[in-house]
Amino acid sequence: MASKIQQLQSQACQASKFVAKHGTAYYKQLLEQNKQYIVEPPSVEKCNELSKQLLYTRLASIPGRYEAFWMELDLVKQMWKNRKELKVEDAGIAALFGLECFAWYCAGEIVGRGFTFTGYYP
């Protein structure tokens, strides 16, 4: 156990040295590549304004997403009514989608338990 802690400390030290050496250059490069998204002058008021714009833009998009959801649901209902004409490929895609949803649910449960598989908290 002690050797694992020392190994982890060594890796953390190496990572820290790497970030100290290359972090500033990466930061400058990142800002240069994304300068079109930077608002001048940077101020608290501008940040508050942008956060409000984001919030209300997202709220304004809800009706469109709501309509798209019901259109998708109508499509699924229509497919269910015509299930006799359903192709094997469509059924396979639906099964894979259901499996993916279940996998994300399981992953969320594992994350919610603190990345434990048994639910045991030491």
From TrEMBL:
<keyword id="KW-0472">Membrane</keyword>
<keyword id="KW-0496">Mitochondrion</keyword>
<protein>
    <recommendedName>
        <fullName>Mitochondrial ATP synthase subunit G protein</fullName>
    </recommendedName>
</protein>
<dbReference type="GO" id="GO:0015078">
    <property type="term" value="F:proton transmembrane transporter activity"/>
</dbReference>
<keyword id="KW-0406">Ion transport</keyword>
<dbReference type="GO" id="GO:0031966">
    <property type="term" value="C:mitochondrial membrane"/>
</dbReference>
<keyword id="KW-0066">ATP synthesis</keyword>
<comment type="similarity">
    <text>Belongs to the ATPase g subunit family.</text>
</comment>
<dbReference type="Pfam" id="PF04718">
    <property type="entry name" value="ATP-synt_G"/>
</dbReference>
<keyword id="KW-0375">Hydrogen ion transport</keyword>
<keyword id="KW-0813">Transport</keyword>
<dbReference type="GO" id="GO:0045259">
    <property type="term" value="C:proton-transporting ATP synthase complex"/>
</dbReference>
<keyword id="KW-0138">CF(0)</keyword>
<dbReference type="GO" id="GO:0015986">
    <property type="term" value="P:proton motive force-driven ATP synthesis"/>
</dbReference>
<dbReference type="InterPro" id="IPR006808">
    <property type="entry name" value="ATP_synth_F0_gsu_mt"/>
</dbReference>
